[in-house]
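task queued by scheduler; priority normal; single chain, no ligands, no partner chains; default sampling; output format set to structure tokens
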Amino acid sequence: MEEFETKNYDVVVVGAGGAGLRAAIAAADYGSKVALVTKSLLGKAHTVMAEGGIAAALGNVDKRDNWKVHFRDTIRGSKNLANWEMAKIHA
């Protein structure tokens, strides 16, 4: 049988991108006991990976580029953790 350990926090922040880290810092500044949950390593979230750019399919510039290429790039960028249906809608 598995053993579990229970923890108590005032605030649980899910996601360690720019917004998640900022929320965790703000909550801690107000004296809250904060837990930060991330699916990756700190510093490897999508805010950092986006590098300030905007991704889009540019079929009007390059005929080889289309929504399927954008979808594939989104899934690869997420290490297959993205919601496929949402990525498809976005692409």
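post-processing summary
- Helices lie at 18-29, 46-50, 67-77, 84-90.
- The mean pLDDT is 84.
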